[in-house]
UniProtKB/TrEMBL annotation:
Transcription regulation is among the record's keywords: no
One GO term of the biological process aspect: reciprocal meiotic recombination
Name of the protein in its database record: DNA topoisomerase (ATP-hydrolyzing)
EC number: 5.6.2.2
Amino acid sequence: MHPSVFLDQSVVDHAINDICVLMQCSRHNLNVVSAGNGLVMGWIRFVEGKKIFDCISSPNTSHPIPVYVEDIKDIISVAHYILVVEKESVFQRLSNDQFCNANRCIVISGRGYPDIPTRRFLRLLVENLHIPAYCLVDCDPYGFDILTTYRFGSMQMAYDTKHLRVPEIHWLGAFPSDSERYFVPKQCLLPLTAEDKRKIEAMLHRCYLQREVPQWRLELKMMLQKGVKFEIEALSVHALSFLTESYIPSKIH
């Protein structure tokens, strides 16, 4: 990006998206890739170009998700499922707790809103491994938006949805009802801001929620009615390992 031509990255992104729509192609067809942001660990081994990503040899060690997902080949995995976590802090918690030693899985994090390589990588794994995928996000409107980005795609990248969306992904949590079920302390419950409420109301009007995942929409509506939000880490307030030893395994099994 040349600063004398483009004022900020968003201008470049919009221009690239317009070109992709005009030419009816994906970004990788134009050889346009951004620096990778995603992380992966667990029971998987694959090759990208001339580089071998051997996560299996040390399943709790994080590896960067390659930006050239189209070059990935020779995927080997004995995982039973894929777990996508919203934040790097939760990813690191799972790593520290040796989560992949006790659970034959692959853990992925987009570290917030997922970039294109992370979404394409997840799509590639689901298509090739034929194992279930679960998503764990904060119980707030931004966490929910990240969840729907994985499942349905984003408006900005609507032209490339078929290569990015993962309709098979399941919402693992955190749900608004979890605050009562798992006795989340009141000090961990934060009031929704006016911006939060506007975002939730806008998402409630997305027609595909009612059509494809009506239960998700009910949970989102409950969040608005309760008027509070909380982070995934709030579930571990009573025990540091609660997330890895109790919450996630009980939700999956």
